[in-house]
Amino acid sequence: MSVAEERMSGTEKGAGKGMSPVSAEDFVPVPEGERDTDVIVRPSVSYWRDALRRITHDKVAMVSLGFIAVIVLLAVFAPVFGRYNYETNNLMATNVKPCGEHWFGTDTLGRDLWARVWVGARVSLVVGLFGAIVPQVIGIVVGGIAGYFGGWVDMVIMRIIDVGVCIPELIYITLIMLYLGSGPLPLVLAMAMVGWMGSARMIRGRIMQFKSREFVLASKTLGGSPFHLIFRSIFPNILGQQVVSLTAAIPGAIFMEAYLSFIGLGIQSPLTSWGQLSQVGASNYRLHPYQLFIPGILISLTILALYLFGNSLRDALDPHLRD
Amino acid sequence: MRKYIVRRLIISVITVWLIATSCFFLLRTLPGNPFQTTSLLSAEMVDRMMHYYGLDRPLWDQYVTYMQNLLRGNFGYSLKYAGQSVNGIIASTFPISAQLGLQAYFLSIPLGFLFGIVAARCRGKAVDYGLVGFSVLGVSVPVFILAAMLQYVFAIRLKWLPVAQWKSFQHTILPTVTLAFSSIAGRTRSMRTFMLEIVNEDYIKTAKAKGLSKYRVVWSHQIRNAVIPMIPTMGMEIVGMLMGSFVVEQIFAIPGIGNQFVTSIQNLDYTMTLGLTVFFGVFVVAANFIVDIVYGIVDPRIRVR
After folding, report:
1. A231-236: long-range contacts at Cβ-Cβ below 8 A with a sequence spacing of 24 or more?
2. Domains (ranges, CATH) in chain B?
């Protein structure tokens, strides 16, 4: 807190230095009739409107958002309007280098990589989005309960989480894959099973910070139910931070999908994803580097854009954290 | 302080026991059995194998036996590699992963701190932008892409270093750099942030006001205080690195423990997976224990809790 105050006072001083000197003539007395001090002259700017204004003025954020929008549009429309189907193979044209006919070339089975890359983008982005949202939602519910009720409920939940995080992720993931098979849905479930613990911990901490604040106590005194207290009194206060964690979690989930598909536990051929394309590409990139580097560069750039956008969003939503 | 240590120790032991127990039962809920994959075996053979390894006994009975062995430090025998004990496999693969991890760790610590300090000292200059750019890049490139690119440039194109395998020091350079890369990037970023966060603190102003040299202010006040919030993550990070990275080990064909772990899950080699998990678990719990104790010494407020 003191750091933030320090910084804020610092910026005020800085702003003062840049202004032209003010002389006494600049000030005119307000006429007697207009001295109505109770009227708020400027429209009040809400938290969300302020955040929106900040983010739209942030060049890095807007460029990243533009890039993400292009990727999403291509993922939605490129497979629809492409000349080739992502799973049809043409054994006469295997391992074709990128050219006018096949923009990203073809793979070892002669499948068009332009089509495969964008179908893969669909899978990667959807898994990334839901792989970030689902664990957060579970985490909010469980962490909210633990943080709000405290006592033995909190104790039991936190001990379960302490043990849970020590079990390697791959065990949960293998478990789910063996029961439900491979595909986007089991992947999201696996990520939920692994990810809820971390976000529950985080939410619990935040809820506990707010639990004893005056406005919550007031609401409690007025007879608010636990549900009301958690979701109407406390939650709006941590929503900004939650949006920030969510944007930070999306690139993490895309990474996770790529990693799991890379070790053969995620998406499997003929369906594809950026991770699966990289896995196939990595096995013969010495002969055909483009088969690895095209999906690889796309993953990296997308994660970069999401990461930069997330940073700007954090700056816009959480004034204390600006650097 | 002693009471605090004893309490932490008891919690740690219980945690290890819970990890072993929950993992034991979780693994047994997996469908299939370790001998089905070899279709050459007749049903009768599979039964005899199950009997030989005691897998036909009641689950509870197996659990008690396993726990008794575990208390003596015996992880049992691999179900896949006939006659090899899990302890033996750990003993042969862990040193390789540990060497790789330690090399990466001790590469990443000085470089990460150095880059972070330099970036913070040169805030807003070209060096700062360069280092921030590097740190952003480091967290957004997946490790397998980085590994492949390094291999492609330094081993295949330039032919300076061997492509893969684990034989001499030259062989360890590329995997070490790959493993250290994201950690250097992350450390650069957090060090820079923490350095800048405290640059306006009162004690820095006091130090400057006392007339200390720039070097003394930065070295004895700013850097020391910036390092404190990084201690807990450093403990966990060394555990993660020691345990090996499956991706790095696979791409560079390194016979390490990470590789072994993934194969054991795919093979349904129960004892192997369980043994490695408990081994990982002990490391994680021990690291947490040490971090808690160090924090208790550094910050007395934590002990009272």
Report:
1. A234/A148, A234/A207, A234/A210, A235/A144
2. 96-259 (1.10.3720.10)
The interface residues of chain B toward chain A in range 130-189, judged by CB-CB distance below 8 A, are: 136-137, 139-145, 148-149, 152, 156
Domains of chain A: 115-297 (1.10.3720.10)
Q: Phi/psi of residue A195, each to 5°?
A: -85, -20
What are the structure tokens assigned to A124, written together?
A: 């990667």
Of the candidates A6, A163, A292, which has its C-beta nearest B15's C-beta?
A: A163
Mutate to test the interface with A, among B16, B17, B145, B157 (most CBs of A within 10 A): B145
- B119 CB near a chain A CB, below 8 Å? no
For the question of an ipTM over 0.85, the answer is no
- pLDDT tens digits for A176-199? 877 777 788 888 998 898 889 988
Which pTM value belongs to this model? 0.76
Give B271's contacts in chain A (Cβ within 8 Å). Answer: none
Q: Which residues of chain B have pLDDT under 70?
A: 31-33, 36-40, 244, 298-305
DSSP state of A90: -
Q: What is the pLDDT of residues A63-117, one digit of tens each?
A: 999 999 999 998 888 877 777 777 777 777 777 777 777 778 777 777 888 888 8
For residues A281 and A5, what is the distance between their CA atoms, to the nearest angstrom?
Answer: 51
